[in-house]
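Run log, item B.
One chain of 411 residues. Sequence copied directly from the ordering sheet:
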Amino acid sequence: MNSLASLRVALVALRVNALRSALAMLGVIIGVASVIVLVSISEGTKQAVEEQIASFGANLLIIRPGSSMFGGRRGGAGTADPLTDGDVGAIRNEIAGLAGVSGEVSTMSTVVFGGVNWSTRIQGVNPDYFAARGWTVADGRAFSGAEEQSGRRYALVGQSIVEELFDGADPLGQAIRIAGHPFEVIGTLERKGETSWGQDQDDVIFAPLNTIRQRFGAGISVTQRDAVQTVYADIAPGESTGRVIADIENLLRIRRDIPPGAEDDFVVGSLAEFIRARNETESQLGLLLAVGAGIVLLVGGIGIMNIMLVSVTERTREIGLRLAVGARRRDIRNQFLIESIVLCLVGGLAGLVAGVAGTLVYAEVGQLEIVIDPVIVAIAIGASGLVGIFFGLYPAHRASRLDPIEALRFE
């Protein structure tokens, strides 16, 4: 018998016992479907996180005041002395490997244009902020360092502001009032969308840091009139994140008179560290998914082996008859092995359909992005075929070793 004839016989045998074949395939179906669903959701989540990180700036360092000590009691985060323009300038001028450094102060305020009011986030920043945070100017321009220092009343608006205040019209050159103060719109920013926690990143207005500090008192402390709430530092491509962080920490310890051995009263956070931790978590999750899917396929393979052994027993006289009329033992072995492989491959294809359908339903119900990776699909189908070979080999070998005379006598 050639392979095509063996395949034809295998399909007939599986069709005769359709219900039993379907039950035998169930483990393979569940295994393949679960792999596709879980990996697709995981890849979709990974892509969403990567897009979110890119919107923040993948090489971004975030520097904030830490906790302070009062009479032996520790205050909360941000209670230490604030960072200042001097710290921003020192980091910019003395730390090698930075593409840009910006301070930031932030406040909420009502913005008015014509007869429309809108409450939004107002952020005072240095010119380097836009490159450091990955903001792109869509139309118009950003303000310069000289304009920031002089406290010019300029504003760059996000796309949500364009829609809410200007009804989508061109806002360049228009005057808006922020808490009663007139500001000229000199630029609009590319859309960024929502963060993973649902915050609209485009619902924001940027203005020169000194302007916001002078007009609104944002970021000003009792002791530091040039305080900033946060410092953003963009690491240049190819530079060592660990080295840059260590240099910034050493510089700030000196500037803030922190004695040797004492804890820092500031925090330097790195998105690169977050990415590394996320990748480690994803690797562990991927390993768990692989182990879980392997267990399910293993159980399905055992079911396949059981069904094939039953099939060998039921068809003992048929095997004896084939051997008696001249079939070679390898023909018998190949026939049952092909049956096992076909059983698993059909189960794998059914699992593929179920997995893709389940992924699409989950994405629709949960309003989530999903990514169906063709490589994972191919691996899942290939794994189901390997299960058929591995667990079908013993029943096929057992069938091929039957004695023709004893097989013909079998009742």
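Observations after the first pass:
- The longest helix spans residues 271-314.
- Residues 68-76 have pLDDT under 50 and may be disordered.
Flagged for discussion on Thursday.
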